[in-house]
Amino acid sequence: MNGERFLFGPPVYSSALPSAESALHRQSKQNEDDRVRRNKYSLRQSLYEGSIDSIKVAQLMPLFQQGGINYRPKLPDACFKDVRADLAGNGITISALHIQAVLDLWGWHVQMAGAHDSNGCRLYGSASPMYIDAGRTTFLSLLGEKNHSGPAVALTMDRNTAVCHMSGRLRLLGEDYGKLSVRLDSNGFQVSLPNKGRIYAGAGLTFQRGRFFLNFRYCLPDVLDGHPIIPGLVLEGAVECSPCHFRQSLSFSLIGNDELHTSPKMRWHDPLKDEADLLAAYQLVEPFFRDFARYLRRETHRGVNGRK
Fold first, then answer.
1. Are 83 and 54 in contact (CB under 8 A)?
2. Which of 1, 17, 172, 180: CA 20 to 30 A from 163?
3. 205-223: pLDDT as tens digits
4. 47 — phi, psi (to 5°)?
């Protein structure tokens, strides 16, 4: 062997055999591919026969794939109901699809219609306006560009992309927070509100499976509705709401001398609309902070005198 030369390098000898784990992985992938093919065939047959009442959004994807899906789409975990489809094709490849259906987004209904062509699938619709009430007050509204309509929803799919997009206008306690343009994923959407208004400026809004979650932080002014406020007090709130319920928790905090003093969380059943509401919540926790505020004033006074 010492005098041998190899044109493409020395030979490699291996006695390794395919592992049982690799064989199980291949078999599992084959089973999954077979299941997908059966589901696609069954779904196509149901659409041709007009015998389908509902279909998951993600189930539409395989109908339009020629040569496989190049990605893992993040589409809403929602379904179409009252499906009316008009198809053309040979039962294996769908060459045209016109569909009308109601997209059920976790109880929020969107009337949609569209078609599939050589560029993919495009479905468009308008949702019903959504109003979240807290007692006699409308806390949150999702509307269309025209206030009497609902947000616009667009679902676009092709071999490389799948996007569900919603656009409209957001209102909190009757105040317009501008245009809302979001992409819906498997659970909903998440967005930061603009820095406008007062209490809810810059708040984080999440829509998740039919429920809204609003987290906000507000630095109280020195005076509320003519009543002096402990300086430096910060309000933090969390709202969870849907068309059926409204829950809100509040807590106050004060920082001084590298110490954080935080009040226990309390349930607050009404939205914070104005200074009178803020003052009512503050007055419940004012005794909790009174001694700490006095301590901070003494320390500040002591520091000033020490520098003289």
1. yes
2. 172
3. 999 988 999 999 999 999 9
4. -65, -40
